[in-house]
Amino acid sequence: MLSGIRVISFNHFHAGPMAAQFLADLGADVIAVEPVDGAFHRNWAVAGRFVAGQSVNLLTTGRNKRSLALDMKSAEGKAVARKLLEGADVVMENFRPGAMERMGFGYEQVKAFNPGIVYASVSGYGASGPDRDTPGQDLLLQARSGLAARTGRADGAPTPAGPVIVDQHAASLLAMGILAALLGRATTGKGALVEGSLLQSAIDLQSESLTAWLNGARSETPRGRHGLASWCSAGPSGIHATADGYLAISMASPADLAIALDLPQLADLPASASFDQRDEITRVVAEQLKAKTTADWLPALQQQAIWHMPVKDYDDLRGDAQLQHLGTIVDATGAEGEQVTLLGHPLRFDGAAPPVRLVPQKLGAQTRDVLLEIGYDPAQIDTLLQSRVVAAPAA
Fold first, then answer.
1. For the whole model, what pTM was predicted?
2. Which CATH number applies to 6-204+322-391: 3.40.50.720, 3.90.1150.10, 3.40.50.10540, 3.30.420.40?
3. Exactly one of 37, 167, 315, 320 is catalytic; which is it?
4. What are 46-75's pLDDT values in tens digits?
5. 167 is catalytic
6. Minimal CA–CA distance to 38: which of 8, 77, 74, 11?
């Protein structure tokens, strides 16, 4: 769908590379420009895990991209970058505000020689304002935005979400903004500056509960009691222990719970009690669920049409029939020749997800190809390689 769109990605770590990967999945020619010793996410790995020398960060955000290793600090490297950007449709970066301008490739600078450019930038706190230069990272933004304060149990501490949900959401929003700008350019012929921030992404993740709070909803505790999922949830919506595991119960009426869980004291409560008496309902349900195993509770919950789900962990996901049907987990031969496991694109188009065309590549795997495409001849490329302006794997 994005065939013919060229994206130059000066991104590192997660939000920027992930947004670029979304575009690559949809067919854009994404050229990931990295320093000659590799971008941060290539050299640092979540859980310290590398597969055949490739970081799991790269495996997470590197599919369907070509790799160009380039020394952007050198005059020759800047000349290569200029040639790349002259023919680009989209340029992406997630450095701290002002870094690209100092290199000569800020939005206004690129727009001057490529007026149709869609220039996308994501930073911790935005390109302007009192905190624009403050380091931005997922955990810090969960703390700053109220997300951590509103996650977890009332009898525990503020709890960050385990995955990097702020970065991931920022990536999705940025990709959406780029697609909107490309659509607008097709109509007007004009490019655009698309700016995102981790701070606003963290706020946007909380739209439902934060809007309730801003409009007067209140609770005695910032987090839910007795396993309630949130301060604003109806009882007993949350995760509760069973005799052998954990079970999520969502949005169930007291009358239905009375039948499914053998709790006659709930039978005559009105539906409004799910909010008015949510702490007591949640406490009673949580205590009752401990009496049986998860499997023992499932038939009654199903019969009463109560929304529920056993809590699964990562080891359970490969055997999930629906994930198998959707092709969510993709096993492939990696660039280094060993098997790697990737996650596929999360959307389907005409019944199918975009394929993995390129596994995450070796650093500079397409350096020669890209330089040839923008007008360098083989002798010039050899000179750039010898001077370490660019890098490529050994032939």
1. 0.96
2. 3.40.50.10540
3. 167
4. 999 999 999 999 999 999 999 999 999 999
5. yes
6. 11
